[in-house]
Amino acid sequence: MDFVTLGMFIIDEIHYQPPREPDFDVMGGGGLYATLGARLFRPPPASSKVGWVVHQGHDFPPQIKDRIDSWNTDCLFIQTPERPTTRAYNRYEPSGYRTFRYSNEKVRITEDSLTSVQLTSKTYHLLCSPDRCIDLVRGIANRRKGLARDPQTDNEMIKALIEDPVFVWEPMPDLCKPAELQKCLNALEHVDVMSPNLDEFCSLLGISIDPNVPADWELMRHKCKELLLGSVVGGSKAAVVVRMGAEGCFVAQHDRDLHLPAYHEQDTSHRVVDPTGGGNTFLGAFCIGFVQSPHADCADRFEEAALYGTVAASFAIEQVGVPVLTHSATGEELWNNFTVKQRFDEYGRRLAERSGHARRQ
What we know:
Elements: E1 3-5, E2 10-15, E3 23-28, H1 30-40, E4 50-57, H2 62-70, E5 74-80, E6 87-92, E7 98-102, E8 123-128, H3 130-149, H4 155-162, E9 166-171, H5 181-188, E10 193-194, H6 198-205, H7 217-230, E11 239-243, E12 249-252, E13 257-260, H8 278-292, H9 298-316, E14 325-327, E15 333-335, H10 340-353, E16 359-360
Parallel strand pairs: 1-4, 1-8, 2-6, 4-5, 8-9, 9-10, 10-11
Antiparallel strand pairs: 2-3, 6-7, 11-12, 12-13, 13-16, 14-15
Helix pairs in contact: 1-8, 1-9, 3-4, 3-5, 8-9, 9-10
């Protein structure tokens, strides 16, 4: 197993400004989009190495079940006939800001939700509070150890279980504030990557960065190092990855940092329809990119992972909901009528042509 997310699946109801009509039964949730990011780089049969959990209530739309099945992932459907599927209400304000609230009680995913196969994953995506992050990391580690000691576990599975997985943590937006900083630093000791978006990063550290002006990379570097140095453990392999929307991403380690631009820039900005889920998708693909070259230098693995994440996010933001999966005449997967390889190669060429744009120190 290459990837597992403990993020949730949610069915969204989205309301717009008049005269546009609302959309109902839209696939959503951080778990869905993180899975999308990983799945983009894992076509069948490798798609079976992408794992997630969906709580399926009594109102689960059959067309959504069919679409999930079409991805051919390792999706564990947990039947909850006594309650509806977790749903959310979304509304776009005149400013373009999207408000969000749960329409019913959410059902969390824990380490106990995972199957034995999902416990062998090389990477885990977590979307939660700092305290819950620590609990999940410890819980997954304990379940892996218990399974490895089980006499009925085969040698191949034991080999996967005894290797340390990579934990990528996405902190909850409403807890990214100075009062929660110490808890976030505590959580950073237990994960390999902490990844807030730019607004969350600024809110957590009590700083202001104007998204309408070019980023202050020295400030970004300084504040990322504050997080890394503030963690008691935070070993040399830890990283802070700030997802910056139209500005791309900033990846910081103790001794290195890197900025990558977004895939969609001025000439393709018209393709951006809805940024919702772009950051989650980035992190799902980031996980796949990190395990793609297991023997590479750690810093190079982070760079590769950021490339994967940037390309994946470009697909997520071109429509409301998830991109459309079709196939070419030769059977190759097409997402929004493009292959993932086409975009990945094109983005790589673009970076090579202006190598000064990818900033590494």
